[in-house]
Specification:
Layout: E1 15-19, H1 26-36, H2 39-42, E2 46-50, E3 54-55, E4 71-72, E5 75-76, E6 83-84, H3 86-100, E7 105-109, H4 111-124, E8 137-141, H5 149-155, E9 163-169, H6 175-183, E10 189-193, H7 204-234
InterPro entries: AB_hydrolase_fold (IPR029058), FSH-like_dom (IPR005645)
Pfam family, one: FSH1
Protein name: Serine hydrolase domain-containing protein
């Protein structure tokens, strides 16, 4: 028998919506990730990068390093306890998921990481992402928790159940807050690195741990896809 007409179904990769840092952009995050992470990791992921909804309203720390335009997800006071345009930000992310999804998880750096880690809890409480499937996976780089009490009560009311990996930099100014976030997660994988608030490269141990994490995600995505196909055939 020839090979004509034979369709080979390759398992789809875990798909992530990527949320960039404060006053940067989706393109900047893409460059940071693709230049720092090895192809062996990138090949196991389907990453979609989007810009935040609001143009940069002040100086960006990446000026002179990366070209503009720069964007921000929402605005906040010095203590990070009061936010402007936060609800609009949540609606915008939901629109991005509807337009570009579906997604299995979120990858976030800095402001994008803070958002990403809070969204599963906000979704569970029915105050965000009510029109899209449940977030199941998180990749958090330089993350922390929100400080606004209203958001805290909703986002972290229950332990974060998503499979999650957290990159924790020894010199990151957010490290203490990143540890607080990790303590709110169920069975998180923590990959330590010696750098500061940045997208890190992998050492041998971290790379091995990341591959194991992604293999676990792939098995879950493949299993869910097979269940969906089976359900469609029997319905």
């Amino acid at each position: 028998m020839g090979s004509e007409g034979i369709i080979i179904n390759h398992p789809r990769k875990p798909r992530f919506l990527c949320l960039h840092g404060f006053r940067t952009s989706g393109e900047i995050l893409r460059k940071q990730v693709t230049t720092k992470w090895p192809q062996s990791v990138l090949d196991k992921l389907d990453l979609v990068y989007v810009d935040a909804p609001f143009p940069c309203q002040g100086k960006s720390e990446v000026e002179g390093i990366f070209d503009p335009p720069y964007y921000e997800w929402f605005q906040f006071n010095k203590e990070f306890t009061e936010y402007q345009n936060f609800d609009k930000c949540l609606d915008y992310i939901e629109d991005c998921i509807i337009e570009h999804g579906p997604f299995d998880g979120l990858l976030g750096f800095s402001q994008g990481a803070i958002l990403s880690a809070a969204l599963p809890g906000l979704q569970e409480k029915g105050v965000a992402l009510t029109k899209v499937p449940k977030i199941r996976f998180l990749i958090i780089i330089g993350g922390a928790k929100f400080k606004n009490q209203s958001v805290v009560e909703k986002a972290y009311a229950s332990p974060i159940q998503c499979h999650s990996v957290h990159f924790l930099g020894e010199q990151d100014f957010l490290k203490p807050y990143g540890i607080e976030l990790i303590e709110s997660c169920v069975d998180p994988l923590v990959i330590h690195h010696p750098k500061g608030h940045t997208i890190p490269r992998f050492d041998d141990k971290g790379l091995e741990e990341m591959h194991s994490f992604l293999d676990r995600l792939q098995k879950e995505v493949t299993s869910n896809s097979e269940q969906d196909i089976s359900s469609e055939k029997t319905s």
